[in-house]
Every structure is written in C-alpha cells, then in structure tokens.
From TrEMBL, chain A:
Name recorded for this polypeptide: Sm domain-containing protein
PANTHER family xref list: N-ALPHA-ACETYLTRANSFERASE 38, NATC AUXILIARY SUBUNIT (PTHR10701:SF5), SMALL NUCLEAR RIBONUCLEOPROTEIN-ASSOCIATED PROTEIN B AND N (PTHR10701)
Record GO cellular component, one term: NatC complex
Domain Sm: 27-86
Biased composition, class Low complexity, residue ranges: 8-19
Region (Disordered): 1-21
Species whose genome carries this gene: Populus deltoides (Eastern poplar)
Recorded coiled-coil stretches: none
Pfam families on file: LSM
TrEMBL record, chain B:
A single cellular component GO annotation: NatC complex
Localization, UniProt: Cytoplasm
Protein name: N-alpha-acetyltransferase 35, NatC auxiliary subunit
Predominant location: cytoplasm
Basic and acidic residues composition bias: residue spans: 1-15
Length: 109, 788
C-alpha cells in the first residue's frame, strides 16, 4: 500500500515526464502489436488497451503457433478476435513501426 | 509430470530466440520493423495509477469483458499442452506403425484401439464433439500413415466412413439444433480418398483372419501352423482367442456400416435387409463382450483403470489417443475436458441404438397418420438417442412425402377420412391446403426430436395449426357463402374443406394433448400444480374426443350416403349405434383426468393439502407459465384461469363420492378392452387405466366411509416412482402415526401395495400413463410431504 502511495505521489510530482511516457504509450494504440507468450505462441492484433498490471487487450487478434517446438517449422494460424493476454504469461511484446519511430521508442529513458 | 519438465525445457529453448524467429516468420508491414515495446510498457505500467487504463476512444469496458483470456484453461482452446501439433505428436511416437514389432503385442494393441474407438464413438453420439472423441485417435488423423498396416488401415477407413455417414444423416435431418456439436467436423479428415473402399478392404482382412482361425483350429495337436498361412501372431496358444476377438469386432463394423447404408435407401426399401444386419450387429456385440475375459487375462501390461471405467476390453490404455490433439479445431466450444464412456457403457449404448433402429425397421410404413403418430409417440417413450431419432425422421419425411411414397396431401385426405378419389380434385391447388401439407411435415419432424425440444416446438407450432384453421375456414366461407348448403352435389370442394377443417381441429388438440403429457415426462409440474394440469388435460381431451367423434360421424355419413344408393345394410345401422372404441378410449381418459382434477381440488378445498404457496409466483402466474402457448393459440377457446378456478373451487369429496368418475373410467376401460386385442400397446395402456381407476375408486369409497373431515385422520402426500405409472399416494394415518413412519413406507416404495393395511386407509394413484404418456424413469420427487 505504502509503495502504491509513493508511486502515485511520485507520479503527481513528476507529472510532466509521466504524462510524456503515458502519451507515448497512447500513441501505440491501434497499431499492430505482436505479443509472445510462454507456451511459444504469438498473437498479432491491434493494441486496444493496457492496465496498470500490464494485461494487454488486442483486437482482431490472430494466433500463430509453431507446429513443432524446435524452432524452424511451419506456422499455423487462426483468428481469435478480442483477446486478453495476462502479463503473467507474456514473454515479449513488439509494435509495428518505422525505423525512426523505433529509435524514439527506444530512447524514452 | 514428465511432459511439464520437457515443456519448460522447450520454453527456455524458445525464449532467447523468440524475437528472431518472430521477425523472420511474422513480417511487419512494408518499410517497418518490429520494435520491442516491452521496456516502454513496463515503465508505463509503473507510472499508471491503480485502475487506470490506456485505451482508445472506442474502448468499452463491457465489451472488453468478453475478451478471450489467453492461457485460461476454460477459455483458451489453443494452449499448447503435450504436443504442439499432430505431426509433432506422431514424431514423438504417439502413434507408431506398426504398433509393436512383436506381432502378439501388435494385435493386442490394435484390439485396444478398436475398443477405445467404440467408446469414443458412443461418447460422440451422446453429444460430444467428433474432434474430441473419435478423432482423438492419431491414426485416424493421418490416413496415409496406416496404409502399410492392412488391419489397422481397413479399420480406420471404416470408422471414418461410418462417422461420415452418421454425420451426413444427422445434418440431413436438420433436427439437431439441441445437439449442434454433433456435426461439427471442420478440419477433420472425413472425406479421405479410398475410404469408400473400406468394406472391400475390411472383407479381405476378415477373410484372412478367418483363414488363420481355421488354420489354428485344424492343427490343435501339432502346434505348428500350416506353412502357407502366416499366423495372426506368434503365440500359438492365443491364436484362436485373438482371431475370434478381432473377427467379431471387424464384423460388427461391417454390419453396422451396412445398417446405415440400408436404412438410407429411399422409401424404406432397405429396411428388411437392415434388420438382418442389425441382428448380426447385436450378435457380434455379444461376442465382443464375451471376448473381454480372454483379453483381460492375457493383457501384457498392468491395467491401471478400475474395471468399471476402463475404455477397452483388456483394461489397458489404448495407444495413439490424445484428447488434446484437436482442441484447437473444436473452436466453437469452450475447451472443456470430456470423459469418454467406459467400454461396457459403449456396448450398452450400441445395443440400445440397434434395438431402436430395429423398432424403426420393423415399422410397416402404414399410410394412416393415426397409426404413425401412435407409433412415434410409443417409440419416443424409450427415450431414443439422436442417431435413432434422426433415422426415424428421415424415414418419415422423404422428398416432401410420407416415407417418400405417399404425397402428404393424400395422407391428410386419408386422415380426414375422405375418399381417395378426391386426390384428383383441384382442392390440392388451394394455397392453404398446400400450406397445411407443410405444417404436417413440420409436425412429423418435430415429433422426432428430443422430449424437451419437442415440447417447446409443439407449443409453438400450435399457433400455425390455429392460423391455418382460421385461414381455411375463411377460404371456405368466402368460396361458398355462409348460408349455402353443402349437401349440394356440385359443392364437392366445400364438403372436402369441411372434412379437412374438422381434421385440422382434431389434430390441433392431439398436439395440445401431447404437449401437456410431455410436461409429465420432463417433470415440469410440481404436485401442487397437478390439479390445474389434469384439469387442462381434461378440457383438451374433451375437445379431442368431440372432434374425433365429429370426424367419424361426418365421414360415416358421407359413406352411408353412397352406400344407400346401392343397398341399405342393417349391420351398418347397428354399428353406428355403438360408440367407436377410439372414442371410448378417450372417454376413459377424460373420466380419469376429470376425476383426478376434482379430487385434487377437493383435497385442497377441504383438507388444505397440496397447497404450496410459492414465494415467487401466484397460482395464476403458474397457470400462465404452464399453458401460455396453449392460451395464445386459443386451445381450447374460452378457457382461462378464471374458468379453471370456477370449475374447481366448489369441488368437494362428498360430491366426488356421489359421482364417481373413477368407477366410470374403470367401466369403460373394461368394456373397450376387447376392441384393442390386436393393439398390444393400447391394450397395455388400457390395463393401466383400469387398474388406476379401480384403485382410486376404492380409495374414494374408503374416505367416504371414514369421513374426510374425521379429525383422527392425518394426511400425507408424496409422489413416488413406479415403472410405468406416475403416482401420488395419499395416505391416511391415524393421529398417533408420525412422519418417520410415513417416510419408511415411502422409501420402501410400496404404498401401492398397502403394506400396513390397518394404517394406510387409502391410496390414490394418479397416472400420466393414462394419457398415453411414458415409460420414462421418474425420480422420486423431493418429498412434497404435507402433514396435518
């Protein structure tokens, strides 16, 4: 609890920088996002929502999976629609962007 | 346990190189790259306040709730469990071909696979998806892999062909709305080239094994097989047993496939042949069952399952099955885990199915709708499963004709008791008559569905029947004017329409009657509602009898007119004076229903029993809930809750004793029995009616002697289970008796036999069987015991 309080007070204190980061994340909305999860599948969909816990909702998502666990193998895919990917099972997260944008995304610190 | 660790290992393998494999196999759009957003998102999450979300303007929390949660075992059917794909499973050795290099083990394993497939097939028929049951077998999923193994290949082929045949029958019938999972076969190899040759392949394999069987039987002493015939397996002592076990399994398949194809022949032409195959199937099932002992005693491993739950005869787990292989294919269903029926249960299921199919095949395709409707109602009493019901439906309605033979209009004309010559009349061009034909076909289809679905649909089609009646009547009036006399010879179509109108009404009441009776089968009525249900049944039965009688007199009248031209027959006149047995049968039911309605009402009025005021709804509301569909269709006219109250609120036991309905019912039943000697079903029903009437009549006398309001009486009411009759026992105890005593009697289920004659003064029986109901198994209802 105390930690949370601290975070929220610090958020208020550094409002300018936090809103900067949040607004940068906001710019990712509706972009194509590729999320990998721990059982080896990937989900590609448009970024719809994220909450404080890091759970992501993708819209019009497609599931990709390797037909074999050993890496180079053909991929199967199927459409799933609206999906929620809990942060606990997420192993990677990429967004589709141009190279210039990639640089700006990386140097947020 | 083991796979978990391998999975973890593979995930670790996967994790480091995931980004490279991602970017290579899932390309970003042109001129763009995949940028890692994890660090950004991580920071953002830290910045966000509790409950704060980042979302666009189109975000809707309610809609977001319906998102599929990934890795939730109840939502995500794609979770990679043991195998990432069928191919990987096969490479991993899930389904080796041959199963073992040791031929004895190979044969044992194949028998296990065959048994497991039978269990899976029964589970599929019972309402689970094909992908999770039969096609959980990896051998079926990769047809090319089994080609080298004749026995396994022919068996896989016949299984796929059978599944395909059953799926197509069920989807043709289109009555599987309730069981819509059944035909889902997307992504499964059901149309494999070469499967159509399954029977010839199966025959060749069967021929080979029977030769092997003969060979081993011919040489019992030498213990050395003939040179030219290679034995089935290596152990000579077991050769005969394994040959036999395989043969009955292969033959069952062959005959079952024949049953399916014969029954699909148009116009019921293959029914006779189908019966022969059904008989063979049943006998092969017996042999399969008998082979269990041999297979269990020679199992090469230990059987892990309990004997009851085992899905194979030997008790071993069959090789090549994994329920999760296809979980992604069964997408429209949540990824529920299912339990495969045990091998014994599966055999029982197939025995039941074959028995039901046999009943269908032995039906004589009677063109009379009356006979047909009684047959269907009787058939449904045995609660047949989907596959059997679908076969019945496809037999009844083919190409818009009854059995594919009789135009539906001819059937209606026969049912309305009109002479067949009318078929040539242009009445059949009347659009409402054509519509009526459609409605009749629809009704026949509905009657073949499961009880719950059937009742709902019957309630709804009642309105169609009502509407077509009104339209036919309007057409009738418009064409011939209200006052015009129909006896006029030139107005033949008016006469025909009049006949048809009467029949439509009769049929409507028949449907209403079935609707009410199905409520008993489905246990929709509580004891406190029996009074209104029996009362409604009584009013519907009255109308049904009226219309049936009218139909008979009108048609007899017109027949007599024709007969008169030739000669007067005194016999005809004598016959006319008698009430037709069909009407007496209805009258008997009417007396019982009325008697029961009034008895229940009297008990409530005088003794305050069977009043269970519900905290949720009033009696009026329950009346509407039960009979809304009938009321909407005005069946019968001018019947409503007030008329129910009016006719039951003054019911008294004393007046019931004065006019004993049960005695009347008993008398009619006794008289009319002789007319049904060649109709065993209705005779059996009449016997039950008679017994119940007699029982209740005696009980009523006892009450009248003791005095209903005698303060020393204590009344308890409880429905209980009986094989054919649905009873309510009203037992009168003296005051010193207590509740425990009553429940003791009740649990021994013997109130009907009045075990303690001194204490139980009277027992009433209420029967739903009297209204042509059911042999359904009724649960002992929760004790609706009211003690005073």
């Amino acid at each position: 609890m105390e930690e949370e309080m601290e975070i929220s007070s610090s958020t208020r204190a550094t409002e300018s920088s936090s809103s900067d980061i949040v607004s940068r994340a906001r710019k990712l909305l509706f972009r194509r996002m590729l999320v990998g999860i721990k059982d080896g599948r990937f989900f590609l969909g448009s970024f719809h929502c994220i909450d404080k816990q890091g759970n992501i909702i993708l819209q019009d998502a497609v599931e990709y999976r390797n037909t074999h666990r050993s890496s180079p193998s053909p991929m199967e895919q199927r459409c799933l629609g609206l999906i929620l990917i809990p942060s606990s099972c997420r192993t990677s997260c990429h967004v589709d962007c141009s190279i210039e944008e990639q640089l700006s995304l990386l140097k947020f610190q | 346990m083991d796979w978990k660790s391998t999975e973890q290992a593979s995930m670790e393998r996967h994790a480091p190189n995931h980004s490279s494999s991602t970017s290579s196999s899932i390309p970003a759009t042109e001129n763009t790259v995949w940028a890692d957003a994890s660090p950004l998102l991580e920071t953002v999450c830290e910045e966000l306040r509790d409950g704060e979300l980042i979302h666009g303007e189109n975000f809707n929390l309610y809609a977001a709730m319906s998102a599929l949660e990934i890795m939730d075992p109840k939502m995500d059917s794609g979770i990679i469990n043991k195998y990432a794909s069928v191919d990987e499973a096969i490479e991993d050795g899930l389904a080796p071909v041959p199963i073992s290099l040791d031929k004895t083990v190979d044969v044992q394993c194949i028998i296990d696979i065959i048994d497991q497939l039978l269990a899976c097939e029964a589970t599929w028929h019972k309402g689970h998806s094909l992908a999770q049951t039969v096609f959980s077998c990896a051998y079926l999923l990769r047809p090319e892999r089994t080609l080298s193994h004749a026995l396994l290949d022919s068996y896989c082929k016949v299984i796929r062909a059978t599944c395909k045949a059953v799926t197509s029958i069920v989807s043709d019938a289109r009555t599987h709305e309730e069981e819509d999972l059944f035909t889902m076969a997307y992504g499964l190899p059901l149309n494999v080239e070469g499967d159509e040759k399954c029977l010839s392949l199966l025959n060749a394999v069967e021929e080979n094994i029977s030769r092997q069987l003969r060979a081993c039987k011919a040489l019992p002493s030498k213990r050395k097989p003939l040179e030219d015939i290679e034995p089935l397996q290596n152990n000579f002592d077991l050769e005969e047993g394994y040959c036999k076990a395989l043969l009955c399994r292969l033959r069952f398949r062959k005959h079952f496939y024949h049953v399916l194809t014969c029954m699909r022949r148009p116009q019921g032409r293959g029914l006779e042949l189908a019966r022969k195959h059904i008989a063979s199937c049943i006998s092969e099932l017996g042999s399969i069952l008998n082979s269990a002992e041999f297979l269990m005693s020679n199992a090469y491993g230990t059987c892990e399952d309990g004997t009851e739950d085992r899905t194979t005869a030997s008790g071993r787990q069959a090789i090549g099955f994994d329920a999760n292989l296809n979980s992604r294919i069964s997408a429209p269903t949540p990824p529920r885990s299912i339990k495969i029926l045990s091998w014994k249960k599966a055999i029982e299921y197939f025995e039941k199915l074959l028995h039901h199919l046999d009943i269908i095949c032995s039906y004589l395709l009677d063109p009379s709708l009356d006979v047909l409707l009684r047959f269907v109602a009787q058939f449904q009493k045995a609660q047949p499963d989907l596959v059997a019901r679908v076969h019945l439906q496809l037999l009844l309605v083919q190409d818009g004709k009854l059995y594919g033979r009789y135009p539906i209009l001819a059937v209606i004309i026969r049912a309305a008791r009109l002479p067949e010559v009318i078929m040539r009349h242009d009445i059949q061009k009347n659009e409402y008559v054509v519509q009526l034909g459609q409605i009749v076909i629809n009704m026949l289809k509905v009657l073949c569905t499961n009880a719950a679905w059937q009742r709902r649909k019957l309630g709804k089609i009642l309105q169609d029947w009502r509407a077509i009646y009104v339209q036919l009547e309007l057409a009738f009036r418009k064409e011939f004017g209200e006052g015009s006399s129909i006896s006029n010879g030139e107005n033949a179509s008016a006469g025909i329409l009049k006949h048809i109108l009467i029949w439509v009404e009769e049929q409507t009441y028949w449907i209403a009657h079935r609707f009410l009776v199905l409520g008993f089968e489905l246990e929709l009525y509580s004891p406190s509602e029996y009074c209104m249900v029996y009362w409604y049944l009584y009013v519907v039965l009255i109308r049904l009898a009226e219309k049936t009688h009218l139909k008979m007199t009108v048609s007899d009248g017109s027949a007599k007119q024709k007969g008169k031209k030739r000669k007067d027959s005194p016999k005809d006149l004598a016959r006319e004076a008698r009430i037709p047995p069909a009407i007496s049968f209805l009258q008997c039911q009417i007396c019982l229903a009325e008697g029961l309605a009034l008895l229940l009402a009297a008990l409530r009025n005088e003794l305050m029993v069977l009043q269970s005021p519900s905290p949720f709804n009033s009696e009026h509301e329950r009346f509407i809930q039960h009979f809304e569909l009938l009321q909407k269709a005005c069946i019968p006219d001018l019947i409503s809750y007030p008329s129910f109250k009016e006719s039951t609120s003054h019911a008294r036991l004393s007046s019931l004793v004065m006019y004993n309905y049960f005695k009347d019912a008993q008398k009619i039943a006794k008289e009319v029995k002789s007319s049904f000697l060649n109709d065993p079903d209705r005779l059996a029903e009449l016997c039950i009616l008679e017994q119940v009437a007699e029982h209740n009549s005696v009980a009523l006398n006892v009450i009248s002697r003791v005095g209903a309001l005698d303060p020393s009486l204590k009344i308890a009411i409880a429905p209980w289970e009986a094989p054919q009759v649905y009873n309510i026992g009203l037992s009168f105890f003296s005051r010193k008796d207590d509740q425990t005593h009553f429940s003791k009697i009740k649990s021994s289920n013997s109130l009907a036999h009045r075990p303690c004659a001194t204490r139980v003064a009277a027992t009433f029986r209420i029967t739903a069987a009297m209204v042509a109901a059911h042999t359904a198994v009724f649960q002992v209802a929760p004790t609706a015991t009211v003690i005073f």
